[in-house]
Specification:
40% of the residues lie in helices and 16% in strands. It is of the alpha/beta class. The chain is globular and about 55 Å long.
Length: 282
């Protein structure tokens, strides 16, 4: 079951309606979205209402309360997927040349965590990188998703056709050893990624606070996510990521994201002038 957009005019939600939906989800499923950035959260709710041609918020609330499977689909639709594979190729070059060698030198095996994953673009990019470095079997990759639908989608390897061209270009610019087509097949007009790359990946069903949190992680990729949280939740999430990392671990966030004294700056040191790569402050 998937969300299909129609041509109707998007319903505009009021703040009260948005709060009612948030409260319903918290009471029924214990997923708390009250500290998500309200405007962007409201817009995503409006898109879901449009997708299902739901004219009233009460109808959406009833579907959420009465259908657990619909709630999983709702969570998947609510999340913001990544735009392409190997996004920001310069980061992946640094990962290949500096970050991964550093964490491998520190220990023969290492743990990498990708919280709040949706489409699998970052996961497959990472798996390809590790495979080409001969280190895929050395890494324990943990992927957290809010929705079981997201986990199903990632495991299937299905890859949006619209992403292939730009992802191929990104891969080349990231100094990939081959062409992206080595890892992606086209059959009946559908692109599918090589799922053998993620056969040993551990998937975790997380809540809205990224819990449960794995310990002793060497590398966390959490890019372009913080903009959807308010400052209160940003502070909580950064503390969660800090506690998950080893003292010599690395945190990678989006190039347009930053830390300040209100959330994270006291816990992390930036180690790259060009990319948003941080180490825990000890």
């Amino acid at each position: 079951m998937t969300l299909t957009m129609n041509k109707s005019i998007m319903q505009e939600l009021g703040i009260v309606d948005t709060r009612n939906i948030i409260n319903t989800i918290t009471e029924k499923y214990n997923y708390d979205f009250s500290d998500y950035a309200l405007i962007s959260f409201k817009r995503r709710l409006e898109k879901i209402l449009e997708s299902y041609n739901l004219k009233y918020t009460d109808v959406l609330i009833n579907k959420l309360v009465g259908n657990d499977r619909f709630f999983e689909i709702f969570l998947d639709a609510l999340a913001v997927p990544s735009t392409e594979m190997f996004r920001d190729p310069s980061l992946w070059r640094i990962m290949r040349d500096e970050i991964i060698p550093a964490i491998h030198q520190d220990s023969a095996s290492f743990k990498i965590w990708l919280p709040n994953s949706v489409s699998g673009d970052e996961l497959f990019s990472l798996a390809i990188l590790l495979h080409e470095m001969g280190l895929l079997n050395k890494a324990q990759i943990l992927v957290s998703c809010m929705s079981s639908v997201s986990i199903e989608t990632i495991r299937s390897g299905v890859f949006s056709n619209s992403k292939f061209e730009i992802s191929s270009d990104n891969y080349i610019r990231a100094n990939g050893e081959f062409e992206l087509s080595k890892y992606v097949t086209l059959k009946d007009g559908i692109f599918t990624r090589d799922t053998s790359l993620i056969q040993n990946v551990t998937f975790i069903k997380q809540n809205s606070f990224l819990e449960p949190v794995p310990p002793s992680v060497k590398l966390i990729l959490f890019r372009n996510k913080m903009i959807y949280f308010n400052q209160t939740l940003q502070g909580r999430i950064y503390k969660t990521l800090y506690n998950a990392l080893t003292s010599n671990g690395f945190l990678v966030i989006g190039t347009k994201e930053s830390l300040n004294s209100h959330y994270g700056n006291n816990d992390f040191i930036k180690i790259s002038k060009t990319e948003s790569i941080f180490k825990p402050r000890t």
